[in-house]
Amino acid sequence: MIPIVRADGAAEWELLASLRRRSGEVDRKVTAAVTEIIDAVRERGDDAVREYTVKFDGRCPETFEVNRDEINDALTLAEPEFVNAMLSAMENIAAFHNRQKQQSFIDTQENGVIMGQRVRGLSRVGLYVPGGTAAYPSSVLMNCIPARIAGVGEIVMVTPPQKDGTANPDILAAAAVAGVDRVFLMGGAQAVAALAYGTDSVPRVDKIVGPGNIYVATAKRLLYGTVDIDMIAGPSEILIAADDTANPVYLAADMMSQAEHDVLASSVLLTTSERVAEETAAELERQVERLSRAGIIRKSLADYGMIIVCRCEAEMIALANELAPEHMEIMTANPLEYIGKIDNVGSLFLGQHSPEPLGDYFAGPNHVLPTSGTARFFSPLGVDSFLKRSSFLYYTREALAEAQVPIVRLADREGLTAHANSIKVRFPDVW
Amino acid sequence: MIPIVRADGAAEWELLASLRRRSGEVDRKVTAAVTEIIDAVRERGDDAVREYTVKFDGRCPETFEVNRDEINDALTLAEPEFVNAMLSAMENIAAFHNRQKQQSFIDTQENGVIMGQRVRGLSRVGLYVPGGTAAYPSSVLMNCIPARIAGVGEIVMVTPPQKDGTANPDILAAAAVAGVDRVFLMGGAQAVAALAYGTDSVPRVDKIVGPGNIYVATAKRLLYGTVDIDMIAGPSEILIAADDTANPVYLAADMMSQAEHDVLASSVLLTTSERVAEETAAELERQVERLSRAGIIRKSLADYGMIIVCRCEAEMIALANELAPEHMEIMTANPLEYIGKIDNVGSLFLGQHSPEPLGDYFAGPNHVLPTSGTARFFSPLGVDSFLKRSSFLYYTREALAEAQVPIVRLADREGLTAHANSIKVRFPDVW
Fold it and tell me: Where, in this chain's numbering, is NAD(+) bound (chains A, B) (predicted)?
């Protein structure tokens, strides 16, 4: 099911290259279709959304917005155990994200100068929640909680209607728990465009977050700049580094927890132990039988999974930093040391008892993470993602007088005489 | 030269709409040309860069990289007054940006749980510096200083060769002051592609920052995701709010300091004073005569300038927040109050003695700011722009045992049995 290779051959580099390719290319047909949808929604608003909803979702709700009572009812009617699990998770997620909040600052000088940076939440954020089997309550929590902590004024959710024309009740219950302000039953590129431009029903937002299919992702990419977006998420990934202290039962289980997402998902094990490599491969075969998504898992592991036997820890670390994985588990004798050694990673799971689903659902750090090697430069979703900064500056006449010479000199050097002039007119005796 | 209109007519809304349109549409021809350049550089590296350099810049330097001695010489040979002005500016810029630095954090719990967020600088950043009259030393400082403070490992500059095949000496001097590590003589989309993919000469970077023409901007947009980018900068803007305490001489000078950048630049004055409106219009006519870029200024003010007479302060504030200007000056009796009133702005300049060029060159806050209304959701360039975050998580067996029930419940609810399995295999006695 999964290939085992030795590091420093060619196989692991081919794998890295193939992982990069998964998310890459923009599909011209999809781009053309999405461009048409975006233009229609910009020009005709709700009417266009209604037409596309009928076309893609079969029928369109009479009103797009879900009634507040319906949202509250979804929470009341949900299984208490499910609600309690969400509440426990929310507590942890909020505790972690509270630590991320940046403060405004101000600096003052004796000559009266005041300057600083104001930090505040975005006014309104749109959250896309996919329909069908990809409608995940945990995703609602992970997107809304940092937005709330950032002080976002209003969170607006869009989600496609189910076949019967109603909203998924688990998603509504999660929306109620996470404090979503308004919910609209629409999906696809048309919902993204409605959020970006605003329609009679849907208010215009400042940023759109949340996962979606290729149409949703393409709409976000095309509307970037008209509105801010979170990131273009590629297929999910896990990389595990293990030495001979690792338990192959855990390794196999954790690899498959990633592989079940998608046939494009990637699960890669790096290990310094030949024995661990072989036993993990055997464990994969053993455990996959009892999992509901065995078909997806088998294909994902065959296409994008690999066990790579490394000669030393340093080789595992170098490969990890090259791959820049979304999730990485460390199952070695010294897991905490890796915090400083893995430079390119979305989220690190350290030790035998920190499986990736712990982070997906419960522990606190965000599960919206950079994929496809972009952890080299992108960061997990967080409170920062929902803040905007602006600077302010107040100079006194005395302070500007002191600063005038270098400013005029630099402006003149750049050939910008009107820049220099704005200083000079304030000190006509000098210039 | 500049229209004067009354607020709450239609004219100011038409202006806002026309400002939005300036930056907007993607040019298909440019996109096609840039796509070809990007593909060529990805496939053929330096050879392709060399061909495009000859084609667009007339000739190609024998080696792309500028010798370290040449960079140091540029600083030694530069006018001492110019160098000193840069050094004073750098001190202020560094002091302000030092306040922005985020720290890593760690949280610990009694049950042994450790989690946190590691924050660190990007490994390598590319800075694009345009050639010709848009080669601004101040831009080198504003881009490099926050990168240095963020802890970026290496800063690589690209800039097109001058007609004689050498680098602009002012830019080299600024690079030496700001601590640029390597400089390459190449420009346009080919230089951006070289930074994004790496070539034999140019190392691959994690993020590309800096201004550029439509080809550079399009290349950055197309390569976003392969590499991070700063923002897609539109034409520059200033908005001024003034009451009858404002000095029309200063107002006119400050409006023109923005207008001289570009015929697409926008300078708009909001004022509650009819007299200030008229006197400022007269001052514009008077002062423009003595400025070297009078032609650009006249066209910019005629096309994208406006004086809008407002009925009250609240109207000025509402218009400002709608416009979300890159720069805003406040020339009223109570300028500091505006810090909390202007929600959508890149940088605020408060009072009579804080003209915008003070911020462009000297005071400390960054001059790379969101344009075209994107201050609604984008922020000034800053230390954050050069940081990446990642989270880490370490659970003990005891802690995971306590958390297992809600995790399994949520995973089951989402139909992800392999996620649940990764918890269950760790507690076979329970499940």
Answer: 128, 190, 213
